[in-house]
Amino acid sequence: TLKMASDSPESLMTLCTDYCLRNLEGTLCYLLDNETLRLHPDIFLPSEICDKLVNEYVELVKTDSIFEPHESFFTLFSDPRSTRLARIHLREQIVQDQDLEAIRKQDLVELYLTNCEKLTAKSLQTLVSFSHTLISLSLFGCCNIFYEEENPGGCEDDCLVNPTRQVLVKDFTFEGFSRLRFLNLGRLIEGVNVETLLRPLASLAALDLSGIQLNDVGFLTQWKDSLVSLVLYNMDLSEEHIQVIAQLRKLRHLDISRDHLSSYYKFKLTRRVLNLFVENLVNLTSLDISGHTMLENCTIPSMEEKMGQTSTEPAKSSIAPFRGLKRPLQFLGLFETSLCRLTHIPAYKVSGDKNEEQVLNAIEAYTEHRPEITSRAINLLFDIARIERCSQLLRALQLVITALKCHKDDKNIQVTGSAALFYLTNSEYRMEQSVKLRRQVIQVVLNGMESYQEVTVQRNCCLTLCNFSIPEELEFQYRRVNELLLNILNQSRQDESIQRIAVHLCNALVCQVDNDHKEAVGKMGFVMTMLKLIQKKLADKTCDQVMEFSWSALWNITDETPDNCEMFLNYSGMKLFLECLKEFPEKQELHRNMLGLLGNVAEVKELRPQLMTSQFISVFSNLLESKADGIEVSYNACGVLSHIMFDGPEAWGICEPHREEVVKRMWAAIQSWDINSRRNINYRSFEPILRLLPQGISPVSQHWATWALYNLVSVYPDKYCPLLIKEGGIPLLKDMIKMASARQETKEMAR
Fold first, then answer.
1. Which of 160, 264, 449, 663 is deepest in the core (most CB within 10 A)?
2. What positions does the domain Zer-1-like leucine-rich repeats region occupy (predicted)?
């Protein structure tokens, strides 16, 4: 079912929402005075649509670098008569005080504000507008929401000396929030009196106090008849805390887990504490004690442990206190504890580090609010994917993608997540992945490359891209991926391995794509970037993969793309060509790539005069005798000269070498090649060759073109016969056979 689910297309609702958000002006809105978005007066949208618009907007701003946020977006939802909001989730820097202020007339039922660091005490006042309807509220990580700016009194000048100070608001409480049942105050700033803040709430069902230090939690007992979920992650516990928790008999979910790396921690879990929970909290279905050290042995001696099939039955539990459970727990958090490695654990879902299932459960449970734990869990997944085989591939991929999207600015998650993606997308898993899923991977990889100039992330991301079919699978992000790679290659200090992978990717991206793509990439500075890399390598006297790939990429990007050919000449490409020939006379692969590129330049009539110098013509003529890379270098040199000869004797503007002498060497070269040579070249079109057939000005050019076609269609008939027919080669060959000026051997070959 998971495979089918990942393959199904997006819902119509999702597609429409996405389209409207990317085209607000063309759909729901118009621009007032060229700057403010306004809703069209005849639009009325229910909360099902408005909630989705707001939540998707937040997601797009966070994860799609091309998407432009709108200053006035939230004002579209200021009037409940035309737009209704009920449940919205806002995150991070995207939301400011004025945005919440804009929607204050809405009857919100659920408002999640996660890590919204720009919100100040102004937003606390706005929250009061929602007090009569709000059931669920999260202020997780909103570290400034209890601060207001205070202007010291006095004159203007004084204010310049004393800028605004931040003052903690102490008088705010949840007075009047009569329907509030679910509240998350995770990572609340120190100094706020939690007890006073919460006292007015009549019947809390769920409370999250993650990362808050409270010595006295006795006040929690005022909700002992209503509280079903309590989260005290990273709170320093003591015996008093345990006694209070044991009185909350309605609890179904209890989380007292901790990050064992965060700080020194006196409290140790004992068998007695766990027994107390099991005896008193009879409704418990979910318990998280991750990161705790056990003070004494809570396990059943292995002698008594019934071996055989692992069991979730409490009676067989390897953890002694849990033998008292009435039924297995739905969830048990044991991440970074020794207990997760035991045989019989009485829970259907366990987070831990023993195996893939436990690790995935940990990533799933902790991603949203605990990146510090999640990055360590993803690191464990990385080891599993690298050393063993992942058995829950789709789930693993989706969890890593979610974590990378959710924590775009968390370096640890970006490093471990991008490394895990490399192993999860390699070829052995390919068959199990849908197009949609693979596109999501590409999106988060590009996000990572954009946000992090850090070497490890860049390398991981580039390596992951190598797991995809290029250019096909990257086509939907073609421009963006090229910009990012060129950006990497243009950095002044470069890591050798990243440089090599990035050049390889650039080369693959411009191979076998249409000319608009090549022109667009040329305009981004592709030609200049490659030439700079070549220049650098020349200065170091190194001819390595980067040097060869750079020339190969230039060969690809100039194919039938005159603008890029011209750029190559304008940026002193010919000078570099000559220097490379001189510096690396034995490098066959290099010579082939350079000559292939010059063949593309020579195909452009307007640029050929620039090749018409004694120096260049002598170099091309001498390369006719080259045996480098089979016939490739000689063949390409002859191709360059064939196009130059095609312009006729009057275009030959040099005294040395003589035109006839070069023609003679060309005939000799062509006659020396084996007609059945297997080729190291890939033609997308025969047009540049075919144009050399219907002419009498240069029989040798005609012969070279005929030889090229004959060789390609006889060695690779399946690929090139259809191309020859499609591009009208047959009538051209027939006409040429009738021409008086054509040489007899050329006609034979044409026939």
1. 449
2. 196-337
